[in-house]
Amino acid sequence: MEGQGRETFALELDGIVKRYGNLIAVDGISLRIAKRQLYAVLGPNGAGKSTLISIAMGLVKADSGHVRLNGASEAAGLSQVGLCPQELVIWEGLTVWEQLLFMGSMHGVQRTIARRRADELLEALGLMDKKRVMASALSGGMKRRLNIMLALMHDPSVVILDEPHAGLDPQSRIWVRDFLKNLSADKTVIVTTHDMEETEKIADRAVIIDRGRVLAEDTPSNLIRSVYPAHLLELSLDGYGSQAEEITKLLAAGFPGLMQQGRMLRAESDNPLRLAGQIRERLTLAGIRDGNGEIRIRNANLEDVFIAMTGRGLRE
Ligand SMILES: Nc1ncnc2c1ncn2[C@@H]1O[C@H](COP(=O)(O)OP(=O)(O)OP(=O)(O)O)[C@@H](O)[C@H]1O
């Protein structure tokens, strides 16, 4: 039974702990990531994402806990993993094509196979016309795309990408989004990211970690539903100038579900239209000019969940 279960997991982390002096970077994380899916690791700066990935790759040794890659202990599984680090690892003096073949030869990939694979990757990430161009002449977003290709030249079954969305221009963002989604049809793709919008669009599952611990793990839509089952109503205080404080006090007294978040009052509601009407009525009664246009009703997104769970914005 146990052996059978293992075959379905690309990565299993069991009770991982990592300390740096007094700081606990990873505080007992256990995760099972099933094969052939796109899995996002989310967390604010310093949450422990990179440390966890480095431990999964065998680059950093955990103080305790176990890692299994494709059912094997990490050393046995590493050749099946491709890592795309946060920093660009590119040889500026080689052309795009030369780098891909060079990476293939470093992994011992047969030359004809490497050439075919390099062509497929160039096609899939939209860089075919840059094949003969020096890496130093590529734009930032193109370099990041090349960085992803280099992690795939040995055709690993598990690909780990540390912040693949960081610093991408809109065009590169679309290439990377489509590429990762397609890749996850037959490989396990694990990304660490701050990009909630991308995660919502492409991830099959996501884990939110903070201070080295797992806060929640599920599909993006279940994560959202679990925290915000209803709609969100938001009242922006920006248009009210010096009356903002008075309005906050007035509405807090009448609508206990309304919470202040910065320059916004926010409530969750099954009937946001009715609530909006009640809020407007209250404001009118108090002689405050119609708040029409200041109220917005929307569905919650992953960023709302992240802020609710970690108490922090993404880039704080
Ligand atoms: N080599 C190290 N020595 C000492 N402390 C470290 C080391 N590596 C990481 N840390 C600390 O461990 C904690 C977790 O860091 P980590 O880089 O894993 O977080 P992260 O979630 O990847 O953050 P970011 O989103 O900023 O990349 C941080 O407090 C960091 O300062």
From TrEMBL:
<dbReference type="GO" id="GO:0005524">
    <property type="term" value="F:ATP binding"/>
</dbReference>
<dbReference type="InterPro" id="IPR003439">
    <property type="entry name" value="ABC_transporter-like_ATP-bd"/>
</dbReference>
<feature type="domain" description="ABC transporter">
    <location>
        <begin position="11"/>
        <end position="236"/>
    </location>
</feature>
<keyword id="KW-0067">ATP-binding</keyword>
<keyword id="KW-0813">Transport</keyword>
<protein>
    <recommendedName>
        <fullName>ABC transporter domain-containing protein</fullName>
    </recommendedName>
</protein>
<comment type="similarity">
    <text>Belongs to the ABC transporter superfamily.</text>
</comment>
<dbReference type="InterPro" id="IPR003593">
    <property type="entry name" value="AAA+_ATPase"/>
</dbReference>
<dbReference type="Pfam" id="PF00005">
    <property type="entry name" value="ABC_tran"/>
</dbReference>
<dbReference type="GO" id="GO:0016887">
    <property type="term" value="F:ATP hydrolysis activity"/>
</dbReference>
<keyword id="KW-0547">Nucleotide-binding</keyword>
<dbReference type="InterPro" id="IPR027417">
    <property type="entry name" value="P-loop_NTPase"/>
</dbReference>
<dbReference type="InterPro" id="IPR050763">
    <property type="entry name" value="ABC_transporter_ATP-binding"/>
</dbReference>
